[in-house]
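Q: What does the assembled structure look like for these inputs?
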Amino acid sequence: MKHLYTWGGILIVVLFSVVGDILMTRAMKQVGDMHELWRRSGVVTIVGRVLSNANFFLGVSAMAVAFFSLLFALSWGDVSLVAPAAASLTFIGNAFAAKVFLHEKVDRRRWLAATLVAAGVALLAG
Amino acid sequence: MTFRKYVVLAGVTVFAAAGDSMLSHGMKQTGAISIHHLQSLIAAVLNPWVAIGILLLLAFFAAYMNALSWADLTYVLPATSLGYVLLALVARFALHEQVSPMRWLGIALISGGVGFVAGGPALTKPHSEHPGHDVPAAHLPSHPHSNPPSEVGS
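A:
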């Protein structure tokens, strides 16, 4: 029963982390290059664009759910399992989701990077 | 990639690593929280370590948003995973903790992954012709109810 709670918690954390990251990336691409915006029109424009972006608020909400699920999952399960498992699976999930939903060119180099980092993060718990 | 962009990526890395360790330290002090005692959640947030951790994570968030405005998600995530390596190095050389061979292997894998992604382009948007200038401000929706950007519908 404890295992079920722990892995259920991990999956919820991963799901909402991925949704949050995808929405946030989409929001920031809609806002535009912050360095460019800063040079051209200043910080007020950046804040205005961010705060008028629906994806930003949806992304923040998803990340908040992920954050509080992580707090709950950490108190139920073993930290050395929950934290690396959630982080590791989020890397893989994000690579898939970025390819499907954001149309990023996830080439062999990027897959290799995501897989190596996910494996490395999992090993850090050992 | 300009110097400022490297500073932003470094900020994402350092703030995330520092914030996470503060949060983890604080949560160990407050103990388990449960869905039946939501006031324990409030107690957790009021713990100074948790509070500082949250502030650092807000700084991380600003840097993260900045990075995502000019780079792919699949570039930013591996590039900033060096924070895990940073934490392990701090544990070994500042806190003098034992780092097992398994952890060194993990550190090597993450560093390898970062090396792979750092050698490639930061942005791979399909319609991009000028990396770094791919989102012309004139074509951006100026209010939330206007059309989604071109890559969504194509």
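Helices of chain B lie at 3-30, 39-46, 48-68, 73-79, 82-93, 101-118, 150-153.
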